[in-house]
Amino acid sequence: MRKRKQIEEAIFMFLLRVSTYSLIAILAFIIVIIFVKGFGALNPDMVLKTPKGGFYYGGEGGVLNAIVGSLYIAVGASVIAIVLGAPAALYINVHLVRHKRTRNVIRYLLDALWGIPSIVYGAFGFTLMLFLGMNASLIAGIVVVALLITPIVVRTFDEVLSTIPIGLHEASLALGSTNTEMAFKVLFKQGLPGFITAVLLGFGRGIGDAASVLFTAGYTDLIPTALDEPAATLPLAIFFQLGSPIPEVRERAFAAAAILTIIILIISLSARILSKRYSRSNIR
Amino acid sequence: MQKRFITDKITWTWMLFSLILILTMPLIMGVGLYLKSAPIFEHQSLWQLITGSNWSPTRGNFGFWPFISSSLYVTILSFILAVPVCLFAGIYLTQFASGTLNKIMHPVIDILAGLPSVIYGVWGILIIVPFVSKVLAPFFNVTSSGYSLFAGGIVLAIMCIPYMLNMLIEVFNTVPAGMKEASLALGATYWEAVKHVVVRKSFPGIISAYGLGLAKAFGETIAVMMVVGNRIQVSVNPFEAGYPLPALIANNYGEMLSIPMYDAALMFAALLLLVIILIINLIFRYFIYKATQQ
After folding, report:
1. Does domain A48-278 have CATH number 3.60.40.10?
2. B176: distance to nearest CA of chain A, Å?
3. In the structure, what pLDDT confidence band is assigned to residue B294 with cuts at 50, 70 and 90?
4. Residue B85 maps to a domain
5. Parallel, antiparallel, or unpaired: how do β-strands B55-56 and B61-62 relate?
6. What are the domain boundaries of chain A?
7. Could you give the ipTM of this predicted complex?
8. B240-251: per-residue pLDDT in tens?
9. What is the domain-level CATH number for residue B288?
10. Which chain B residues in 89-108 lie under 8 Å from chain A, judged by CB atoms?
11. Which residues 68-127 in chain A show a CB within 8 A of chain B?
């Protein structure tokens, strides 16, 4: 009896370890494969040039248009998400701090919103565009991606704000500050690491999402110069080039995938570093 | 003095406005998609749309069953693959792992969750598709191009693991250590304590985390679409190609305005996704709140 349960434990401990370490292995596997395949075709032209004539038949050029387009969309969307998201998160933690039930209902809805797939946002953005009589454009892409990442920004920021002790609110209110001053001068400052994480998380999602911009941002070989022009995006550049039967073009898709992965890794890394740096000055 | 209070009023209004706008988004999206897909309901009943398997947009036949069944197939397949890994890794990280390992695993899970789906798609094409066609299919004595429901399921499983794992970790962390210690004191092995106390105590949370993972898998688009083959058919063979619902929308947006009713049909597909996923989310999020807020 005693023996059996110890054997069972040994077997399961083995399985638990294997499962956990397999995650590290999978991540390493993905990144190594993408880099090995991608760096083969990666050259300065890829990141410095827009597609030239015959690019999609293996001609000269790069994916600068897609890199810039993706950055435009992700930055624009992040700005909208900040303007809408940060106040919303502050509202939950300033004005609703004593209404536990309302707060929980709101968090519950935000979490559910987080679960909506990006293709649905894309389809909705498309109906919105038709409704407004717009064409696929940079601004449409920005708006749709903003819708997609705002719940993420709100919820992540809110998660950090909610850990701030209520005594800090009370101290600042007792000194005569208005709710707004308390929100921006005390809570925002204290929650800054969370804010940075939230924005970078949203930014990363925005730069990597393909399904939402597929309908709304269009695709072009040029770098957009105005908000109503279509914009190429990196995920779509990868997706379209991978569909090509020509090997050189497929190679470029791998290179573009390596670029996108590097961007995502940089964002993830900087989120960690920045949030660590800014949490040093926090009141604990 | 006065100015401070005016600023306060303005920011208060802006904060409330943003929050309400964000919270009403699902409703606005639902209504928008419904209005766009309304014409198709005059044409075919909801039941016909969902269970019909005749898909020929040019003749006005819209049966979504091949797509719905493909979606269900890859989702369930990915679910079966991801469930044990998530459960085991979640238990190990919260109950056994050292602080150092947790410190390493945190960024690993975050990066896995943060990788764009198109990257998973590229990786799937490079690794999983050849693996399915050259290793798995011969093993089961079938021929397959590799672009199959099975490949979709594997890629989807890997994408969903970090998502479900994060929630599982949260759920396991709410189990009080005292409960586990009590069972250890009674002579249980560590594994028994975990099996009978930790897992049982957090059972509702585990189910919810999986439910939410299921919803996420159901709506995942690009990665699945890149490896699943995109052929319209109802198949029980996992080595055959499939055509999930999100892929249908993503692949055909270009031509949908040129065929009558096609746009309504695709918007109906989006509405269907929205409703199914929102309902699953609302149900399981509720359980998660119940589970973690004790």
Report:
1. no
2. 20
3. low
4. yes
5. antiparallel
6. 2-41, 48-278
7. 0.90
8. 888 998 898 888
9. 1.10.3720.10
10. 89, 91-93, 96-97, 101, 104-105, 107-108
11. 83-85, 87-88, 90-92, 94-95, 104, 106, 108-113, 115-124, 126-127
